[in-house]
Amino acid sequence: MAYILSTNERAEALSQTVAALRNGETVAIPTETVYGLAADATNGLAVAKIFAQKGRPSFNPLICHVDGMVMAEENGLMNDLASRLAKAFWPGPLTLVVPLHSHSKLHDLVTAGLGTVGLRCPKGFSRQIISAFGRPLAAPSANRSGRISPTTAAHVANEYPNEPLLIVDDGPCEVGLESTIVKVDGDHLTLLRPGAISIEALEEISATPVRFAKSTDGIQAPGMMASHYAPDAAVLLNCSSCARGAAWLGFGNQPAPIDTSPSLNLSSSSNLTEAAANLYSYLQKLDESGAKTICVAPIPMEELGIAINDRLTRAAAPRPETP
Ligand code: TXA
Ligand code: MG
Questions:
Q1: Can you give the pLDDT at residue 317?
Q2: Where exactly are the structural domains of the chain?
Q3: Are 311 and 279 in contact (CB under 8 A)?
Q4: CB within 5 A of ion ligand 2: which residues?
Q5: How far is Cα 123 from Cα 120, in angstroms, rounded to an integer?
Q6: Of 24, 122, 179, 207, whose Cβ has the fewest other Cβ atoms within 10 Å?
Q7: How much of the chain is helix, strand and coil, in % rounded to 5?
């Protein structure tokens, strides 16, 4: 049974969370992007529990969450370029992949032996947890592997109905999409995963062009795996019509195709930020309706729409065979 702890009782929530982390347990924590399944990043057994609970392929490295620059510099080599980006966007939805510091105490499971580390300083209550705990937290999104990322405590609880998991509830996530991931390699920047921080914003702050990772670059971010964000229903993209019995996920002021039920609109005012924040919870609601297919209206390929289309394309990709 999941145990939900509200941040309305801040001191109590902090002390129980820190106690569980010290005990080597995983805890579901709220961040501004999505809920994370967190564990002490220096404790191999605790990190292994994350993989076990998520059912995650173990070659995926995990993001290491820090409470600021000092903790970041203890674990990764933050050159001028990385520091400039961190100062501009932290705390916030940006993950920087940088070379691992030789003195870092992070467990190998966190970096998957890549010699690099993905560092992120999250906003809000999760940052307070890291400061109180005094160590970095490894935390992937709190969904089971290959499923939709949770943006509320209730979503997390649905993912783990039979496990004694502590879930810290700080309400719905502000952004609703995972962080932008950028690899900093000397004075080069490579986008590994689009997210709430736009390419334009990165280029403006860094005065450096951002290149895109090629599929031949190997798995640099498993967000690159074909089917990654999948509801149970099949997902069809760029739809203008919808078969009877299918669910409809709209965008903008176009009305839903006739006879479509259930139907939800990511943002009737065509606001991409609102659409991103609604994306996972709406996919989940439509999935829970029992519809076999979810038809999705076209989403413009600009600003946050790039990240939304990236997630939707993965949700629509052919699924791996389940044993
Ligand atoms: O918003 C977020 O980033 C959320 C919240 C919980 O912080 N976390 C999240 O983690 O999305 P996860 O594990 O679901 O996705 C992390 C991505 C993975 O695709 C992983 O491969 C990549 O970050 N990553 C982590 N460390 C890396 C590294 N050293 N090199 C390349 N990619 C890395
Ligand atoms: Mg994830």
A1: 83
A2: 3-217, 234-316
A3: yes
A4: 141
A5: 10
A6: 207
A7: 35, 20, 50
In the predicted model, residues of the chain with pLDDT beneath 70 are 56-59, 214-229, 259-260, 320-323
Vertex 323 angle, CA 308 and 60, to 5°: 50
- Nearest alpha carbon to residue 266 among 298, 227, 223: 298
The pLDDT tens digits of the residues spanning 32-51 come to 999 999 999 999 889 888 88
If you take atom 29 of ligand 1, which residue's CA is the nearest one? 117
Is 3-217 a CATH 3.40.50.2020 domain? no
Model confidence, pTM:
0.84
**Distance from Cα 241 to the centre of ligand 1, integer Å:** 35
Q: What's the length of the chain?
A: 323
DSSP state of 242: -
Q: Provide the pLDDT for residue 215.
A: 55
Nearest to 45 by CA among 26, 60, 30: 26
How far is Cα 104 from Cα 116, in angstroms, rounded to an integer? Answer: 11
